[in-house]
Amino acid sequence: MIRPQPIRIIAEALLLAGIFLGVWFGVYSLVPKDWSYKPRLSFEDEKKLGDILIDSYLQGEQRVTDPEALDMIYAMGNRLQEQIPNSQYNYTFYIVKSPVANAFTLPGGNIVIFSGLIELADTPEELAGVLGHEMGHAENRHVVDRLIKEFGITAIGAIVLGDKGGMIGGLLQKAISTSFDRDQEREADDFALKTLVSSGINPKYFGDFFSKLDKESSVLENGLEMISTHPDNGERIAKARNYKLPAGFTEKPFTADEVDLKKLKELVQ
């Protein structure tokens, strides 16, 4: 029997190690340095989760169900959605009676607007800016990602399958919180500004409305949730007001037939 020489064995081992390291570094170089794995629900399961959460939330709230009021909200939301290519969501809007100036997004494209927010607006374009921001949270899946991070994909999946296990209350409370991190807020803002421009709405209205919220919050003891949970409000106002409009931009204000803001305010009282 011919015995392999030690030098040959070492050489072959070094060759194999070199090949392995070459392949490993090659694959590693293709992976973005900021990449991290995020477990995610399918859009179908997110829709089921959203249905469960919105049904639970609305049980304890006084809704505005007047068709004319909802038509006006949908007139704003639909114009924005038309400018979102390949969206996985068919947005559903709800108006809830509350003096608080707030809005939030639940999974599956469910957006809740408080009557207090409508009362504070001076133009439909200001409200459209808020809707665009909430759509930005939905399109970037900020809410569902936060829920998975907090409760785990297994627990979320069990709820989708019908095993609620008493978790709905905690899940809903986390979902309706508007406490997003700074990067998520910027993503939602950038999405809103881009979508507003595509919809023929000047993004300055977005800045004007948040400036109004900022002033309103400063005179209240506890502030406004939509401001207190959003960092760098001055930065976002300046970004909206100074947004560079594309060449040929044509502003398309909402007509009174689309959104009569005075009438909308009366209907949500």
Could you walk me through the main structural features you see in this protein, from its secondary elements to its overall organization?
This protein has 269 residues and is mainly alpha-helical. The chain has 13 helices and 4 strands. A 4-stranded mixed β-sheet has the order 1-2-4-3. A hairpin with a 3-residue loop joins strand 3 and strand 4. Helix 2 crosses helix 7, helix 5 packs across helix 9 and helix 5 crosses helix 10. It is globular.
Q: Which structural class do the helices and strands define?
A: mainly alpha
Number of helices: 13
Portion in helices: 55-70%
Instruction: Give unreliable regions as ranges.
Output: 20-36, 218-225
> What global shape is seen?
globular
Instruction: Give the termini separation.
Output: 97 Å
The fraction of residues assigned to DSSP E strands is: 5-15%
Could you tell me the radius of gyration in angstroms?
25 Å
Rounded mean pLDDT is: 84
Spatial sequence of strands, sheet with the most strands = 1-2-4-3
Total strands: 4
Largest beta sheet, briefly? 4 strands, mixed
Which sequence of SSEs, written as H and E, runs from N to C? HHEHEEEHHHHHHHHHH
